[in-house]
Amino acid sequence: MKLSIIILNYNVRYFLELCVLSVQKAIDEMEAEIIVVDNNSPDDSCAMIKLRFPKVILIENKENSGFPKGNNIGVAAAKGEYICILNPDTVVAEDTFSKILAFAERQNDLGIVGCKLIDGTGNFLPESKRGLPTPFVSFTKMSGLYRLSGLFGKYYASHLSENETGTVDILVGAFMLMKRNLYNEVGGFDERFFMYGEDIDLSYSVMKSGKSNYYFHETAVIHYKGESTIKDENYRKRFRDGMEIFYKKHFSSSSFFNFFMRIGSGIFAAGKATAVKSTAVLPQKYMLISDNEVLKSQLEQKTEVAVTMQETTHFSQSFSRNRATQIIFDNNFMRFESIISNFENHKNQNFTYRILPQSTDFLIGSDSNADRGEVTFIP
């Protein structure tokens, strides 16, 4: 078997359904398997997988064992030459895995391959590629100085643009493709981590083994819960705790880390006190990309606003962008590849986006990278 996709789920049933649907289409003509590991979700995620995706391998944990352990359980059950660690709040294109596997097989020193991640508005997520978080680089992250270029821009691997493929130090756990035997050789995810730092640790362990990690820009994956969704005190604590484990494991002393982090935490706290929370603008009009008149009528009942319908996969540029518009993509009508392309091509144009997954009655979307995403049901 060529590929095993491991999706660790906790309590995101509708995002999981969209994710698995997109993955299933992406591996349609491949020797591949999907493994969903559920960390004891209180929702009906497991029932949904059994009903809608009976060929998916489902592992039902009896506790929430955390990100590293849950993924290790999934990899232990995998049979593929390659594995892909994939978050359940992602959407892949039909050609994502064929493209990234072709790239992987051309490399002689393959470590981990990551790809371009975009948020629910089509904007690039900088955590798609990162540098090694030395004490100083971690300080630039916590203090916000990473937004500057040059010396301060190493946290998000600013030596590469979002549209350049190349080697990077660290890749994010939302999408990591690598050979299964390499994952096992370096010990997989370190289970001392729980929710932050395990992807940094795995990436660095692979680098130390003599392999190279790559950021691959030629396919984009939607990730609804970007890193910026949790910029609060809990995030700061998780970041610091994860980095402390990382430094104690890989470096002889963490005194520099503690010094820089104390300064960075102070700047972080001051910034939080004056931060202005972003608010989403309510749509003033809706456009449905579909050929389904019944769906159009259902959405008009839901929104109480006239819905414009367009039967083309590339929506018109002719209407005004001065009015906030929500674009609804019908996956019964459009491929995921086309939907993702439209996200990217029309970003920052006063649009918000929703996807209607094939054979469902709900919409999924988010309006900013500070938005965890929402599910809306169609009457």
Structure, explained:
With 379 residues, the protein is of the alpha/beta class. It is 34% helix and 22% strand. The chain has 11 helices and 15 strands. It has helices at 13-26, 45-52, 67-77, 96-105, 135-143, 180-185, 198-208, 233-250, 255-274, 293-303, 336-345, and strands at residues 3-9, 32-38, 57-60, 82-86, 90-91, 110-118, 166-168, 175-179, 212-223, 285-289, 307-310, 325-330, 351-356, 362-365, 374-377. Helix 2 (45-52) links the parallel strand 2 (32-38) and strand 3. Helix 1 (13-26) packs parallel to helix 2 (45-52), helix 5 (135-143) runs parallel beside helix 9 (255-274) and helix 8 (233-250) runs antiparallel to helix 9. The longest helix is centred in the last third of the chain and has 20 residues, at 255-274. It is globular. 46% of the residues are buried.
Structure summary:
The chain contains eleven helices and 15 strands. The protein is an alpha/beta fold.
Topology diagram in text:
Layout lengths: L2 E7 L3 H14 L5 E7 L6 H8 L4 E4 L6 H11 L4 E5 L3 E2 L4 H10 L4 E9 L16 H9 L22 E3 L6 E5 H6 L12 H11 L3 E12 L9 H18 L4 H20 L10 E5 L3 H11 L3 E4 L14 E6 L5 H10 L5 E6 L5 E4 L8 E4 L2
Parallel strand pairs: 1-2, 1-4, 2-3, 6-9, 10-11, 10-12, 12-13
Antiparallel strand pairs: 4-8, 5-9, 7-9, 14-15
Helix pairs in contact: 1-2, 5-9, 8-9
